[in-house]
Amino acid sequence: MTHSNWIRRLLCALALTLGLCAGAQAQTTPIRALVLYDQPDSGPYAKLGMAYAIMLRNLLGHWNTTVDMKSVQSYTAGQVEQYSVTFYLGSYYDLPIPPAFLADAYGTTRKIVWFKNNLWQLAWHPSYAGFTAKYGFTFASLRGLDATPTATNPKPGFFDTVTYKTRPLTKYYVYDAATGAVNADPDVGVVQIFDTAKAQQLVPISNSRTGEVVPYVVKGGNFWYFADLPFSYIGPRDRYLVICDMLHDILGVDTPTRQRALVRLEDVSALVNQNSMTVLSNYLKSKSIP
What we know:
This protein is α/β, with parallel strands linked by helices. It has a single domain, classed as Rossmann fold. 24% of the residues lie in helices and 27% in strands. It has seven helices and 13 strands. The protein has a nine-stranded mixed sheet, covered by helices on one side.
């Protein structure tokens, strides 16, 4: 390829990559969000809930938001009414949830987004027997691996594939036969929809071994439920992308489309032709690219 052709092709690629699309009006009013996380008194995973909360807070920073974080154990009555949306990250199995939060989560008209564990403390509580009638779904069970993994069967079935906008997103899973350790988060909360007029399955998750499908994201009224924690064992092509995208719907913000890119000029050294760099620099400047 000649020098001039190389420059021409690179400039064309830059033009395509850096094109901007017109979008909707930008959000101007800050959204107040509360992120609640599990924090047991002790144990090796006592700080894990906070780590997940930080990940969620970082994502919420994409919008004009004011985000408060605290352990669910320190929740006080009425706090959900101070926020547009409250997220609860159920990372710790059966950690007792304060009655004040259960009552407020059930009684509020503000958005509640619940992840994975401990929904049974609300949905099955006698004081909130109307949960199913109100939201159109209920918690059924917690499901994990179909069998104990072995050297001959290292990956037994589990709900491992989230299908989002026709794209399969596979959860991370590694089994170490030498130690018997499972590096994965195979558990999901299974819910059952009773009234499709009130509750909708927005995203499914399936067991690739058995073909069984259950809801991954379900919404009933102002109540959203995610079957697992999309921040655990995350990868670039797994269900983490679902929460990244669905936060637009949860927050209800019509975000302007801005197709931005990072341009890297690689292997620039004293041996590179100065004229080539001048052409590239002038082009970037002409497009107001810093």
